[in-house]
């Protein structure tokens, strides 16, 4: 009996030590500060720019993650893993300058220097300066209210373990991938700021959950005729007629904001990329 008690005591001690390492290491990751280049953003105030900012916020999925009117919502909440709840945009903007808003969108870095998580800075960082100003103009037009979510993001022990192992990495980046004005090659541009939040051009991949498969973008787009591709982009329905899960959500919530000409430009760019790929 004495040996059993000692064994349980040792086991309990190891568990406590493991939890301390996981908590301490993950907390260091969460609190680490990040330096980024300065951003000088011009935020327009005219109604047309605000409306275009709202349309762009659909395309780059601000209104999916933060809810349709920016009121914030719970993306997921899993016991032991944690809760990811993008905050209400109006409330957040009230505490930030335009430069600070631009910094968190483009670099994934909050005003205190700590990193965001989940937010796809690798694609949002490609938003042109003028479009970034329009999106911030739309955010500034939002008003806080009782509909705003009060839920905060937090990580449980499994979530902290994912942070510590790099499976859930901080999204802070120092890379400036933007240009001053929305480029004429809008197909390439929209693929970069929207589609590549999830997809790679020529390689299959998986989402952060390690389970959801994401096909290579260029060969898939090249396999669709223009009408079927428009349907895919507006409804998330593939050629087989089945709903494509996350793509369906993205299409119905965000990509309906694309014009027909923009969808055609996206497909034309992706077909060109597919043609460049070496034969397998």
Automatic annotation (TrEMBL):
Q: From which domain of life does this come?
A: Bacteria
Which controlled-vocabulary keywords does the entry list?
Heme, Iron, Metal-binding
Molecular-function GO term, any one:
electron transfer activity
InterPro entries given in the database record: Cyt_c-like_dom (IPR009056), Cyt_c-like_dom_sf (IPR036909)
Domain (Cytochrome c) spans 48-143, 182-274
Name this protein carries in UniProt: Mono/diheme cytochrome c family protein
């Amino acid at each position: 009996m004495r040996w059993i008690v000692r064994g349980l005591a040792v086991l309990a001690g190891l568990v406590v030590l493991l939890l301390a390492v996981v908590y301490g290491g993950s907390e260091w990751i969460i609190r680490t500060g990040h330096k980024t280049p300065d951003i000088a953003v011009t935020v327009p105030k005219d109604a047309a720019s605000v409306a275009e900012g709202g349309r762009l916020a659909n395309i780059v999925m601000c209104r999916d993650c933060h809810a349709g009117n920016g009121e914030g919502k719970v993306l997921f909440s899993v016991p032991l893993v944690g809760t990811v709840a993008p905050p209400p945009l109006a409330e957040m903007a009230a505490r930030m300058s335009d430069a600070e808003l631009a910094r968190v969108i483009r670099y994934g870095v909050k005003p205190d220097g700590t990193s965001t998580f989940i937010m796809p800075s690798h694609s949002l960082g490609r938003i042109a300066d003028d479009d970034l100003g329009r999106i911030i103009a739309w955010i500034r037009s939002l008003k806080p209210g009782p509909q705003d979510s009060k839920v905060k993001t937090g990580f449980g022990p499994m979530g902290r373990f994912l942070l510590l192992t790099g499976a859930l990495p901080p999204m802070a980046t120092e890379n400036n991938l933007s240009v001053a004005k929305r480029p004429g090659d809008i197909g390439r541009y929209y693929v970069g700021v929207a589609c590549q939040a999830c997809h790679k051009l020529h390689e299959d991949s998986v989402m952060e959950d390690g389970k959801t498969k994401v096909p290579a973008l260029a060969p898939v787009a090249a396999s669709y005729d223009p009408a079927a591709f428009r349907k895919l982009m507006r409804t998330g329905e593939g050629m087989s007629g089945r709903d494509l899960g996350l793509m369906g959500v993205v299409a119905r919530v965000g990509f309906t904001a694309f014009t027909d000409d923009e969808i055609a430009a996206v497909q034309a760019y992706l077909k060109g990329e597919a043609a460049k790929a070496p034969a397998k």
